[in-house]
Amino acid sequence: MSIMRIGRAELRVMDLDKSVDYYTNIIGLDVVARDENRVYLKAWDEWDHHSLILQKADSAGLDHLAFKVEKVEDLSVLEKRIEQFGCTIKRMSKGTRVGEGEALRFEIPSGHQVELYHDIEKVGTRTGVLNPHPWPAELRGIAPHRLDHCLLTGDDLETTTRFFTEVLDLHQSEKIMTVDGEVMVGSFLHARNGKPHDIAFVKGPDKKLHHAAFFVDNWYDVLKAADILTRHDVTIEVTPTRHGITRGQTVYFFDPSGNRNEAFASGYITYQDFPTITWTEDKIGQGIFYHRRELIESFGKALT
Fold first, then answer.
1. Neighbours of 17 (CB within 10 A)
2. Segment-wise mean pLDDT, segments of 10 residues, the chain, 304 residues
3. Which domains does the chain possess?
4. Catalytic member of 50, 149, 171, 190
């Protein structure tokens, strides 16, 4: 039984056409399908039908995020474990969304909606599988390889972390604790797939999205992303810098509805025996913004 990775996120946006223009021409994703209230997109290096869904809505935020499991049989096993933990599950039928098979939908302790799925149409990457070049000849915008992770907020991070580690078998790569070691204020988790994180949480109000991140190759691509954002007058919250947590390189910015995005590069590689790294709250500024060594006010307050 295995959760392989984060598979998709569905974001609520207030102006669907403007958001599609932003995510295609500035982020650089491809539109693969549409219905009345949703647009489905993928990055050039992703195999599956889509990784991002934009939903027309009255307010910004996260409708749900989803993880892909290795085998369809894993859904039944995980369904029992999720119910035993005390979460109510709803079965999403095949075809509920374009290109998708059956899924499990449930509410995690932080109040967010999460889905598990296996079946999704494969459309392939833009480089193909026969003698592929390292990148397509024509790219738009930031042109990330993939949807990389989401960071959410929640009040009870201990229970939320326990759900992901004990029920879904994710591993906690890093955590942030109060100086006395009594309360967890940050939790970074990966699906044992070599990444620093597929999902992360910081202490805050339940049900909120902090950011959705897209993976780019390296520091130069983070700098180039910032150049592209500036050229298009996109609001940049944090100019290019490094994280202490995950060691990734980053730039943070906002989509037209106010959902925070990140272009994220590098980061360390995790293994099955990777220990959990602990940060103390008095060093959280250095952990998040290694060079600046302090948080900026908007970073904790601009949530959707």
1. 11
2. 92 98 98 96 98 98 98 95 96 94 98 98 95 94 98 98 97 97 97 96 98 98 98 97 97 98 96 94 96 94 96
3. 3-117 (3.10.180.10), 146-301 (3.10.180.10)
4. 149
